């Protein structure tokens, strides 16, 4: 069911946010990517999905500046602009959560670094609430997992990151939602009724 097909009373309940984001494929020398396990802000902890570090641009900030800032805030890793490559891809995505719909334009960059101890001290209050953990994933693991990984084409993007020409690559616009059907909405509403 597409977001526009949801019952009108459900559309009215969820606010719509529009934002521009920078995301980073943070790869180790063996090609593994650092991902965070995140959850729906309206249902912290359930269901979960895996995402790259990144987030919204602050006012007056370039997409490259946002990528570096978000990387430092979410991982503790401070890089300079010369260590950030790209952009390697761009897409538009709709994330449907229980309490909101986020329409976002995403620009992806890549950086290759040795694995390090991730420092989550810079996480926002929402990230502290919804982030569950993090780990380094290899391409085969991403292709084999039944877990939600966003973007859904991340394994292909990892392959493209190793070959700078031609960048940027095309990632299909997508809907990646924790809310897939009206039945799920009714079930969640009954579980979390006030």
Task: Describe the structure in your own words.
With 194 residues, the protein is an alpha/beta fold. The protein has a single domain (16-179), classed as Nucleoside Triphosphate Pyrophosphohydrolase (Alpha-Beta Complex). It is 25% helix and 33% strand. It is built from six helices and ten strands. The strands form two sheets. Strands 1, 4, 5, 6, 9 and 10 form a six-stranded mixed beta sheet that branches. It has a four-stranded mixed beta sheet with strand order 7-2-3-8. The longest helix is centred in the middle third of the chain and has 13 residues, at 63-75.
Helix content: 25-40%
Cα end-to-end separation: 26 Å
Count of individual domains: 1
**Mean pLDDT score:** 86
The SSE string, one letter per element, is: HEEEEHEEHEHEHEEH
The total of helices stands at 6
Structural Rg: 17 Å
What is the third-level CATH name, the topology? Answer: Nucleoside Triphosphate Pyrophosphohydrolase
Q: Which architecture name does CATH use? A: Alpha-Beta Complex
Query: Which regions are unreliable across 5 or more consecutive residues at pLDDT < 50?
Result: 1-12
By DSSP, the count of extended strands is: 10
């Amino acid at each position: 069911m597409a977001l526009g097909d949801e019952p009108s009373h459900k559309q009215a309940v969820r606010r719509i946010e529009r934002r521009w984001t920078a995301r980073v494929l943070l790869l180790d020398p063996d090609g593994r990517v650092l991902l965070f396990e995140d959850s729906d802000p309206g249902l912290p902890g359930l269901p979960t999905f895996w995402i790259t570090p990144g987030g919204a641009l602050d006012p007056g900030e370039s997409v490259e500046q946002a990528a570096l800032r978000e990387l430092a805030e979410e991982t503790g890793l401070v890089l300079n602009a010369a260590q950030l490559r790209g952009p390697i891809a761009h897409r538009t995505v709709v994330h449907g959560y229980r309490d909101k719909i986020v329409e976002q334009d995403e620009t992806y960059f890549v950086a290759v670094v040795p694995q390090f101890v991730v420092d989550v001290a810079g996480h926002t209050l929402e990230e502290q609430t919804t982030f569950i953990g993090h780990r380094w994933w290899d391409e085969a693991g991403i292709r084999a997992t039944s877990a939600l990984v966003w973007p859904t084409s991340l394994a292909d993007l990892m392959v493209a990151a190793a070959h700078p020409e031609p960048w940027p690559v095309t990632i299909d616009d997508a809907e990646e939602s924790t809310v897939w059907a009206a039945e799920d909405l009714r079930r969640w509403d009954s579980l979390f009724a006030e």
